[in-house]
Amino acid sequence: MRRRDLIGIALETLRLHRLRTTLTLTAIAIGVTSVLLLTALGEAAKGFVIQEFANLGSNLVIVLPGSTETSGMPTFGGTTRNLTVEDAEAAVRRASAVRRGAPLAVGSATMEFEGRTRDIMVAGTTAELLEVRNLRLALGQFLPVGDPRHGDRVVVVGQTVQRELFEGKNPLGKAVRIGEWRFRVIGVYAPKGRSLGIDWDDAVLVPVATGMRMFNLTSLFRVMLEARDAESVPAAIAQVRQIVRERHDGDEDFTIISQDAMLGTFSTIIDSLTAFLAGIAAVSLAVAGIGIMNVMLVSVSERTREIGLLKALGGRRRQILDLFLVEAVMLSGSGAVAGTLLGVLVIGIAAAIWPEFPLRPGAAWIATVVILSLAAGIGFGLMPARSAARLDVVEALRGKR
């Protein structure tokens, strides 16, 4: 029996049992689509996190108050001690591996202009934040360079604040009220978007000393430092740790984290979660494989006389085995193709709806899921095929198994 004949017989069998074939194909397609969707979501989440860290700036080293130990994401708790502007100045001045740095004090308040109000995040910082956080000016000027311990009542606003509070007017030089404090708008920074949960477009920047007085703060929220280059990050961490420890009487009551360490931790977590979700979705492929086995067992039972006739006409055991395996592979392969097309379509639609989320089907995952589908078809179709190949000719012609 030629290979073309085997394929023709398999196709005819599948056509004669349309409902059974359709249900089996649907089960496989759903399994394949589920795996592709979940893995695409995982990869998109990883891409989103990488982009978020890229938006933070380059070669960042971040100092946080608190004596927690961490090699990646900080886990807060333990002894907390004030992290001061003087600590930030010393780190920048004395650490040769640090190019620049900016302290950050954060609070929230209501901003008012001509009867319109908006709840905003207020970040007290210095002029160096412009370079450390890769910010760009759209209008006016940034925070003044000078002694960070003497803050002026000037403010630089984000794009959303400008649009919603000033309603298209040029905000430069306008007097606004933030909480109980009056400020003069000196600049507007270009769109920055959300970064690690903070919407910078809906925030304003004030001098760090002013920000700390506004919210009665004694400690900075964090100090953001920029190493001279990627290779200098480990040296910057070591130098800053030594400098701040000396200023804190030998106590390491602070946490230093790097951008790469945080990114590595996030990536590891997301990769593990993606693999876990893909494993869960792959269970549906196993269920579909069991469905193939059931279909093939029923097919063997229904075609006993046909198998006997093929054997009587000289059909070898290997050919009978191939006949049923070809049918199983056709089922699993067609289901894999249908599921892949459906998955790619759904992912494409989702990417068009949420363009800010980097959703795209992964070629490696597509190849993996197709191979798994074919393996499931062969694996679960092997037992019925072997059962058919072992039938006795006489018994099969009599319709007995």
SSE map:
Blueprint: H1 3-16, H2 18-56, E1 60-65, H3 85-94, E2 98-113, E3 116-125, H4 129-132, E4 137-140, E5 154-157, H5 159-166, E6 175-178, E7 181-189, E8 194-195, E9 198-199, E10 203-207, H6 208-214, E11 222-227, H7 233-247, E12 254-258, H8 259-302, H9 304-312, H10 317-353, H11 363-389, H12 393-397
Parallel strand pairs: 3-10, 5-7
Antiparallel strand pairs: 1-11, 1-12, 2-3, 2-6, 2-11, 4-7, 5-10, 6-7, 8-9
Helix pairs in contact: 1-10, 2-8, 2-10, 2-11, 3-7, 8-10, 8-11, 10-11
3D architecture notes:
Helix content is 55%, strand content 18%. The chain is α+β, with helices and mostly antiparallel strands and 401 residues long. The protein has 2 domains: 3-52 and 264-397, no CATH class; 102-221, no CATH class. Strand 2 (98-113) and strand 3 (116-125) form a beta hairpin. Helix 2 runs antiparallel to helix 8, helix 2 (18-56) packs across helix 10 and helix 3 packs across helix 7 (233-247). The protein is elongated.
Keywords for this structure?
six-stranded mixed beta barrel; two-stranded antiparallel ribbon; single chain; alpha+beta; 2 domains; elongated; 12 helices; 401 residues; 55% helix; 12 strands
